[in-house]
């Protein structure tokens, strides 16, 4: 049996009404069940007004099953009066989440933008 390539850290120490979930590793099909349980625990208290931050800084990859769970978490947060934000996503993870609207697309580096502007010469 191999060790899982993913981990979820939960932090509620900052304030009682804010929950930080840090996703670490590869969130593919194998991580689906663990992520579902982690999100279920966040919303289980039934109290309104919680803020949920899903920190993706150390997430290496994300599969469609886990993206679906993050979308379900967003919907559940809206319906139950919770705040919900996905933060620190980067690279391929951010691109995948941006396609769903869960986070904004990465902005091109300003130096790269100048290279992308085509100039025509007569």
From TrEMBL:
<dbReference type="InterPro" id="IPR036513">
    <property type="entry name" value="STAS_dom_sf"/>
</dbReference>
<dbReference type="InterPro" id="IPR058548">
    <property type="entry name" value="MlaB-like_STAS"/>
</dbReference>
<feature type="domain" description="MlaB-like STAS">
    <location>
        <begin position="21"/>
        <end position="102"/>
    </location>
</feature>
<dbReference type="Pfam" id="PF13466">
    <property type="entry name" value="STAS_2"/>
</dbReference>
<protein>
    <submittedName>
        <fullName>STAS domain-containing protein</fullName>
    </submittedName>
</protein>
